[in-house]
């Protein structure tokens, strides 16, 4: 009886979020602010998956362009809730979160909050002890990776958020496995769409290594970024060889070589400019990425016949 009454109460709250009158604005804002704090108590007497579905309805019912900041703060609280650590609940919540974040990133609205939400999700998924994350990475990748990449493209370098946006993109790429790369490539409907993406990402990578986003003394961040870019270049080189050799797409091959050469010659990888101790640490952790890139360039060159 108690569970039924609680369920009716929760559904009444979600239905109330549909209203777009001034008289309900404060109450709706209060619901978005305080509901996440009730999750631990509700979870002790209520099914987690059902509660997740109710929360999806609660957020989705808020009319467009109404209480946007409060809604996204609520989403951020959900990411840090006990529910998000349960794989079955995360599977329900994550599509809604991506659906809320993507249009805001596209409009550059509430950028700081959206970046925080995605970045915090990636940190959570990187940590152990939260169950399988394979499908979560797929959801994020297919839903918002392209939007994030386009934010990197269009954001001015003087924008204080540019470093955070790049870190967000790198964080998604970091957790993508070979399966995810293949899944992402296979998801493009036409060859032209795929070509546009490959051209875009190669230009982004080339720009990042040619004009550093991070200060030169942020060595660890720059090396991590480079290792992830190199991993991505390896995957995309296979795509270029498999999809754009016959018929031959000159521009994408040209862009690949220019990107790889810019990567190889960037200041951050010229290890002879570092102290012996620093050089040894870099090689121990990342190897000499110039050598690895050189192998990739050579393999691609030989594929030209």
TrEMBL record:
GO aspect biological process, one term: myoblast fusion
GO cellular component, one term: cytoplasm
GO MF annotation, one: small GTPase binding
Superkingdom to which the source organism belongs: Eukaryota
Residue ranges constituting the Dedicator of cytokinesis TPR repeats region domain according to the UniProt record: 2-305
Record-given protein name: Dedicator of cytokinesis protein 1
Lineage: Eukaryota, Metazoa, Ecdysozoa, Arthropoda, Chelicerata
């Amino acid at each position: 009886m108690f569970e039924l009454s609680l369920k009716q109460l929760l559904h009444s709250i979600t239905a109330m979020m549909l209203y777009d009158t001034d008289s309900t604005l404060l109450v709706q804002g209060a619901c978005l602010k305080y509901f996440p704090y009730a999750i631990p108590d509700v979870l002790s007497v209520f099914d987690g998956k059902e509660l997740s579905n109710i929360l999806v309805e609660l957020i989705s019912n808020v009319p467009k362009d109404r209480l946007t900041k409060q809604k996204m703060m609520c989403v951020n609280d959900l990411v840090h809730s006990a529910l998000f650590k349960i794989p079955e609940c995360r599977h329900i919540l994550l599509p809604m979160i991506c659906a809320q974040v993507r249009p805001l990133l596209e409009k550059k609205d509430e950028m700081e909050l959206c970046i925080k939400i995605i970045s915090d999700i990636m940190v959570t998924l990187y940590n152990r002890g939260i169950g399988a994350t394979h499908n979560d990475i797929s959801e994020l990748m297919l839903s918002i990776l392209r939007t994030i990449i386009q934010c990197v493209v269009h954001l001015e370098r003087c924008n204080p958020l540019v470093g955070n946006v790049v870190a967000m993109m790198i964080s998604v790429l970091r957790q993508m496995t070979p399966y995810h790369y293949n899944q992402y490539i296979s998801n493009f409907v036409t060859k032209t769409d795929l070509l546009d993406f490959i051209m875009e990402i190669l230009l982004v990578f080339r720009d990042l290594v040619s004009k550093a986003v991070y200060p030169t003394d942020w060595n660890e961040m720059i090396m991590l970024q480079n290792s992830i870019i190199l991993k991505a270049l390896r995957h995309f080189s296979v795509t270029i060889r498999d999809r754009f050799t016959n018929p031959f797409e000159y521009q994408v091959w040209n862009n690949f070589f220019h990107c790889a050469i810019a990567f190889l010659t960037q200041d951050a990888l010229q290890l002879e400019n570092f102290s012996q101790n620093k050089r040894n640490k870099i090689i121990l952790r990342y190897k000499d990425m110039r050598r690895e890139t050189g192998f990739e360039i050579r393999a691609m060159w030989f594929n030209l016949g």
